[in-house]
Each structure stands twice: as structure tokens, then as C-alpha cells.
Write a structure and sequence with these properties.
Elements lengths: L2 H6 L17 H11 L8 E8 L5 E5 L11 H13 L6 E11 L2 E9 L9 H17 L4 E2 L3 E4 L34 E7 L6 E5 L5 E8 L6 E6 L6 E8 L5 E6 L3 H15 L7 E3 L6 E7 L3 H11 L2 H16 L4 H14 L23 H12 L4 H7 L23 E7 L2 E10 L2 E10 L5 H17 L18
Parallel strand pairs: 4-5, 4-6, 6-13, 9-11
Antiparallel strand pairs: 1-2, 1-17, 3-4, 3-14, 7-8, 7-12, 10-11, 15-16, 16-17
Helix pairs in contact: 2-11, 3-6, 3-7, 3-8, 6-7, 6-10, 7-8
Length: 486
């Protein structure tokens, strides 16, 4: 298709780098035209931008200067901002403090668990090991009994715990766990259901979480239908439904309403399990106190790697807001957006028109342009923190949220990209090897009425086409500048 024909084709706006710029390669124009002509996407919005990651030159664009809902492509911004602001080796800290005098093994006052935005505390092996270290440190200090309470201090990031514009029907789903300076066990409760022909077993982890279970057995081969819900603002988990006698055990996760209170109770139980006598638990604001113990999270590069690989919403919110807190002294949504735009500008990406409502992409208030995401990817390709950023991106057909996409074709194993999906939104932005160079791309679909699978298939076909345009179809995977495969 000629450039003139494409420009004339209904609705396509091909954007050049400036006056006198060479026209985009015809094959790239054809690839964009094919994507826009997919019948399933009729009536929806399609934004595309492809740039040379090494030079930042825009190769082709279509509606790439218009705002699109990002879904989890917002995590590209959060990860880049955090690495740029805090550095790959940054570690978040959690402290235990004493409000009162420690004499003869007795703390005459309150024990305070103070959060510093670590999203990993009590989550996974490292997170549980850090809890054990805090408890062990208290025992080493001789603490045997606390006359006061175990309090949680989550003031460092501010009082916001939910993203701006998060839908109410997200709020009992594990992917919408609240964020904050103090997190515990990823701020979710796990409910496990084991089938039985007489009385199915329903267990909550942690075991002290209040639960109301009404799960009935169904005959072998019958359909299993179980729901786990938490009423807004309440702790109680309601588990209802039926599970077939021969079904596999079922596992659900639900978010807690108050992460600080959840952490206070969790730490209280950990202390009691270690033989330290403590009183009740609760939440308290920041105040001066004596430090008794301190632990650090894994380095930011590992947190960002997990964030991008599995598209972890809590991690994204934590690192985006912690970056703003470190830079501006404020971890609010407003400060997060202000700081992120400043970092984009510093990286050479014009943030004009971007609306940043959260760090994860759950909010439909987010608006980012394809040219901004492609430009950010190009900037990170040239950045000193390129290696940990690229290393976290899923590999097509092999890892993370791209494991089950691109199972065949030239993109498999060579494309690294971040997925994005909420209802009526599908995005994919990342890197395609192009001979000795690299292309950065962003594809953003909004407001389509076809199935999600059809939308994803259209995006994947476009990315496969980008790979096929390379001068060497067997080009190696995208590599970091240190030569290590990422």
C-alpha cells in the first residue's frame, strides 16, 4: 500500500517526525493498515506507535497523540519512574519501635510496627523470613512481654489506600488489594476449599481471619460453583456454593479492607507464636519511639522484575507512590502523578496530555498516548537502568503474562513486552529486535465491542508482522547493553 493510499484510507493518521522527514517504510504502513482494518475492531479506537529505540525516531504512528486507557501498561511508567528515582538497589525498610521503657524483659508501653512501603513483608519466603527476623531481634533484645498494644504505623505514604477511580466491583478481588506504607501478606486472605462427599473443608489463611462458610458437597462429576466475597468495608469473608466430591481443591484470595490493621494483627500473632506476651493490636499514627529491630526488602530491581513479569498491581502502586514520597515528601496520588510527569520529561518524553490516576492501571481515569509509551520504552532502552527494566518484561510465548501468547511464529522468544487488560481495553507495549537495532512499540485498543480474545489476536498479529519485517528473521532476543540476555 502506498503512503498516499494509506493516508487516504479511512481514519488513519500517519504521523511523521517533522517537516522534511522521510515517509515511514511501506511495510510498516501496511502493518498498521492491516491492524486498523480488522473487522472485529470496528467502532473501537486503535492507537499505534513504533519508534527506533536507539535514536528515538518515530517510524510510524496512528492516533498515537491521543489519550488511551492504559490498563497495566501503566506499570511501564511506574517501573521506569521507580528505577530512575530510587535506583535498582534501593530497599524498603520496616521497623519495630518501642513507646516506653524496656526493663527486665518487659516493655512498659506499646510496640509499633512502622512501614516504609515494602510490598513484600510476610509475602513469600523472603517476606516471611523478614517477619521471623523482626521477632528474633526482639527476643535478642530481651523482650518477653509487652504491657501495651501492638500498633501499626502506616503514615509514611499517606492515608490513601485505593486508586483514584477504582471500580467498586473490583474491591473484593485480589488484584485490587489496598496499598499503603505497611503491607502484610500482600494484603490478601487466602481461602482454601477441599472437596469431600459429606462436608467440604473451608480454611482461611491466616486462620484468625473471620469467615462464614456455607459450602455444600455435590456429586462426583457435577459442576463446582463457589463464590468468596467480602462486603465493602468489612473483614468477614462469605464463602458459599457447592463443590463436586471429585473436584480439585479450590483456592481464592480476597483483599483486606485495612492493610495496617491486618499487619498489626498478623504481627501480634507472630509474636505470640514466638512466646512473647502482648496485648491487643491496633493502628496508630507516627510518633517518636526507640527502634528495636529493622529489616529490608529485596532490592528494587527484583521487586520491579516481579511487578512487570506477573503484572502485580500492589507492587506497582507501592513503588510509584514511594518514588513520589522520596522525591517530593508526599506519597499521594496527586504527588505520584506530578513526580511521574517530571521523570517522563527528564527522560525526554513529553508528558503533555497524560492523566495518571494510579500506578497499576486499574483506573479508567488513566489516559496515556501510544507515542508516550513508545517514547518511554525508547528512553529506557538508552537509560543506565535499562537492564533491570528490560529483564522484568515478559518474553513472548515463554514467561509471565505472555507465556500463553505468541506460542508460535517469529515473535516467540524474541519480543519482550508488557500486557494490559481491563474490560474493553487491550494494550501491548515493548521491544522488537530489528537486525542490529531495536524497535519500541505501543499498541493500545480501547472501546472495542468484540471479544477480548479477538482484540488480543489482532494485537498479536500486528506484533508478529513487526517481527517479520526485520532484516534477519532469526535475530537474537533483545539484550541489555552489558551483553547479558534479559
Amino acid at each position: 500500500m502506498s503512503l498516499r493510499a494509506l493516508v487516504a484510507w479511512g481514519g488513519v493518521a500517519v504521523l511523521l517526525a517533522g517537516c522534511g522527514a522521510l515517509p515511514p517504510p511501506p511495510d510498516l504502513l501496511d502493518a498498521v493498515a492491516e491492524l486498523r482494518s480488522v473487522k472485529a475492531l470496528a467502532g473501537g479506537r486503535v492507537g499505534v506507535c513504533v519508534v527506533d529505540a536507539g535514536t528515538g525516531e518515530r517510524l510510524v504512528g496512528s492516533d498515537d497523540d491521543r489519550g488511551f486507557a492504559t490498563a497495566s501498561n501503566m506499570k511501564l511508567v511506574s517501573a521506569a519512574v521507580a528505577l530512575h528515582t530510587l535506583g535498582p538497589e534501593h530497599r524498603f525498610t520496616t521497623e519495630v519501635l518501642a513507646r516506653g521503657a524496656l526493663r527486665d524483659g518487659v516493655l512498659h508501653g506499646d510496640l509499633v510496627l512502622r512501614g516504609g512501603a515494602d510490598p513484600t513483608l510476610a509475602h513469600g519466603e523472603v517476606g516471611m523470613a523478614n517477619v521471623a527476623r523482626l521477632v528474633a531481634a526482639l527476643r535478642e533484645r530481651g523482650v518477653q512481654r509487652v504491657t501495651g498494644r501492638v500498633l501499626a504505623d502506616d503514615e509514611w505514604l499517606g492515608r490513601e489506600h485505593l486508586g483514584l477511580g477504582w471500580q467498586w466491583d473490583y474491591l473484593d478481588e485480589d488484584y485490587a488489594a489496598p496499598f499503603g506504607a505497611l503491607c502484610w501478606r500482600h494484603n490478601v486472605v487466602t481461602v482454601r476449599i477441599r472437596p469431600d462427599a459429606v462436608a467440604p473443608a473451608v480454611v482461611a489463611e491466616p486462620g484468625w481471619w473471620p469467615m462464614q462458610a456455607e459450602v455444600r458437597p455435590a456429586t462426583a462429576g457435577a459442576a463446582t460453583a463457589v463464590t468468596v466475597r467480602r462486603a465493602l468495608g468489612r473483614d468477614l469473608a462469605a464463602v458459599r456454593g457447592t463443590i463436586a466430591a471429585d473436584a480439585k481443591p479450590a483456592t481464592f484470595e480476597i483483599p483486606v479492607p485495612d492493610p495496617a490493621a491486618f499487619a498489626a494483627r498478623g504481627f501480634t500473632e507472630a509474636l505470640r507464636a514466638a512466646g512473647i506476651e502482648v496485648g491487643e493490636d491496633g493502628v496508630a499514627g507516627a510518633a517518636e519511639a526507640m527502634s528495636l529491630a529493622r529489616v529490608e526488602s529485596p532490592p528494587l530491581r527484583e521487586i520491579v522484575g516481579e511487578l512487570l513479569r506477573v503484572s502485580d498491581n500492589l507492587y506497582a502502586e507501592q513503588v510509584a507512590r514511594a518514588s513520589a514520597r522520596a522525591a517530593l515528601g508526599d506519597g499521594s496520588t496527586e504527588a505520584m502523578a506530578k513526580h511521574a510527569k517530571a521523570v517522563l520529561a527528564e527522560l525526554g518524553v513529553d508528558p503533555t496530555g497524560a492523566v495518571l490516576a494510579d500506578g497499576s492501571g486499574l483506573s479508567r481515569r488513566n489516559l496515556v498516548q501510544p507515542r508516550q509509551l513508545a517514547g518511554l520504552l525508547a528512553a529506557m532502552h538508552r537509560s543506565a537502568v535499562r537492564a533491570p527494566f528490560v529483564a522484568g518484561l515478559p518474553v513472548a510465548g515463554e514467561s509471565g503474562t505472555l507465556r500463553n501468547r505468541f506460542r508460535t511464529g517469529s515473535a516467540r522468544g524474541v519480543v519482550r513486552a508488557k500486557t494490559g487488560f481491563i474490560s474493553r481495553v487491550v494494550c501491548l507495549s515493548g521491544y522488537v529486535p530489528h537486525g542490529e537495532s531495536t524497535w519500541a512499540f505501543s499498541v493500545m485498543l480501547n472501546d472495542f465491542t468484540c471479544s477480548d480474545d479477538e482484540a488480543k489476536a489482532a494485537v498479536d498479529a500486528f506484533v508478529q508482522r513487526l517481527c517479520d519485517l526485520g532484516p534477519d528473521a532469526a535475530a537474537p532476543p533483545y539484550r541489555a547493553r552489558d551483553g547479558v540476555r534479559t
